[in-house]
């Protein structure tokens, strides 16, 4: 944001009702929050409004544009878990363009690549299938910081097992959502307070070990300028067992809407097919969440015939590749300002 402000562009930033708390994040509700921001800047007379998405905000911004571009009657009416969301009744101004910086594929698709499939008991953070353990030397792992050479057969089995684990968590989430819905319907009829309590007691899903992307320790997979490790640290073989990580705590509804790579609708590539406005995608060459293949796939997925894909040196959050170099944020700001200057002499931004 400072890079854009310093170049003379007005910037509007906001957060969703789930600020700093993905525990309850429902993407469909977040679209309503984005709509409020877009309406706010439009009502103040800006001639052009360009939406900005960084990291996971990229998928949210694309999802917003997809839904805002549809006739109201065709917008989503509920979350994947069934919670009603009144998008059809909302004013959803379509922005004039979309800027993306380090856009990962969306929370669900990202988690699908970082979740540890060797977990065999969701209630036991130490449970393990050794044949799928990414940090076992028998599967190709070597002591850091040396890059681990995983075999193609192991990678294929690993990706399949990741999908299977997400499927199992999806099943649990859907069962809990269904039980809550049944209790709500009973309460509507009999007004029994026990049913009301059960409707609210869907619980929290705990997902152990979500720092296990093979690309974090095998730098030959989809190579770029990234350092060894993950967004969470230089030793994913250790942080994988800690308390940090994507999607570690989530309600069943939020799991299905946000963190499930199977059930969530907020995948960047899926949503890009509904984006017809001009797009600039800024890929950072040392990114550990948006890899080169992700960036290429995303750029090709947009429906717009005006898509620009540039690469600048930097890391996911805008740090420089090496100490003393120009920051990725500054280089991204330069690319954004150049693109904006050619298309939108004056613009406001809705930051996600």
Notable traits:
11 helices, 38% helix, 9% strand, 352 residues, alpha/beta, two-stranded antiparallel ribbon, single chain
What's a concise summary of this model?
This protein has 352 residues and is an alpha/beta fold. The chain has eleven helices and eight strands.
What are the SSEs and their pairings?
Layout: H1 2-6, E1 12-13, H2 27-43, E2 49-54, H3 57-68, E3 97-101, H4 107-114, H5 152-190, H6 193-200, E4 205-206, H7 236-239, E5 249-250, H8 252-259, H9 268-272, E6 279-284, H10 292-301, E7 307-312, H11 328-343, E8 348-351
Parallel strand pairs: 1-8, 2-3, 2-8, 3-6, 6-7
Antiparallel strand pairs: 4-5
Helix pairs in contact: 2-3, 5-6, 5-8
Class from secondary-structure proportions? alpha/beta
| Domains, number | 2
CATH fold category name of the largest domain: Rossmann fold
Helix-strand pattern? HEHEHEHHHEHEHHEHEHE
Distance between the termini: 11 Å
Widest sheet, order of strands: 1-8-2-3-6-7
- Amount of beta strand: 5-15%
CATH-scheme architecture of the largest domain: 3-Layer(aba) Sandwich
Global Rg: 21 Å
Helix content: 25-40%
- By DSSP (H or I, 4+ residues per run), the number of helices equals 11
Number of DSSP strand runs: 8
Unreliable residue stretches: none
Largest sheet: 6 strands, parallel
pLDDT averaged over residues: 95
What is the CATH superfamily of the largest domain?
Answer: Alpha/Beta hydrolase fold, catalytic domain
Per the principal axes of the C-alpha atoms, what is the gross shape? Answer: flat
CATH class type of the largest domain? Alpha Beta
């Amino acid at each position: 944001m400072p890079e854009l402000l310093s170049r003379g562009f007005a910037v509007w930033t906001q957060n969703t009702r789930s600020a700093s708390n993905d525990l309850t994040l429902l993407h469909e509700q977040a679209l309503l929050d984005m709509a409020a921001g877009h309406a706010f800047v439009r009502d103040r007379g800006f001639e052009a409004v360009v939406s900005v998405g960084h990291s996971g905000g990229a998928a949210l911004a694309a999802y917003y544009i997809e839904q805002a571009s549809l006739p109201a009657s065709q917008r989503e009416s509920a979350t994947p878990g069934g919670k009603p969301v009144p998008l059809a009744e909302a004013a959803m101004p379509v922005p004039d363009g979309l800027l993306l910086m380090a856009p990962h594929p969306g929370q669900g698709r990202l988690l699908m690549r970082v979740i540890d499939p060797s977990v065999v008991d969701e209630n036991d953070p130490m449970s393990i299938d050794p044949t799928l353990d990414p940090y076992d030397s028998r599967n190709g792992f070597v002591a850091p910081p040396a890059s681990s050479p995983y075999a193609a057969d192991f990678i294929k089995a690993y990706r399949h097992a990741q999908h299977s684990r997400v499927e199992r968590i999806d099943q649990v989430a859907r069962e809990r959502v269904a039980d809550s819905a049944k209790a709500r319907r009973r309460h509507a009829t009999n007004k029994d307070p026990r049913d009301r309590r059960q409707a609210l007691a869907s619980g929290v899903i705990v997902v152990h070990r979500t720092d296990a992307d093979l690309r974090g320790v095998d730098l030959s997979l989809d190579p770029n300028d990234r350092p060894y490790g993950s967004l969470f640290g230089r030793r994913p073989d250790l942080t994988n067992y800690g308390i940090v990580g994507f999607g570690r705590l989530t309600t069943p509804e939020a799991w299905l809407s946000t963190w499930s790579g199977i059930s969530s609708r907020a995948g960047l590539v899926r949503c890009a097919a509904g984006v017809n406005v001009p797009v600039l995608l800024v890929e950072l060459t040392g990114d550990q969440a948006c890899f080169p293949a992700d960036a290429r796939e995303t750029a090709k997925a947009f429906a717009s015939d005006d898509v620009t894909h540039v690469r600048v040196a930097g890391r996911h959050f805008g740090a420089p590749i090496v100490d003393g170099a120009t920051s990725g944020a500054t280089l991204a700001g330069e690319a954004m300002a150049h693109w904006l200057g050619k298309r939108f002499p004056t613009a406001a931004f809705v930051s996600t």
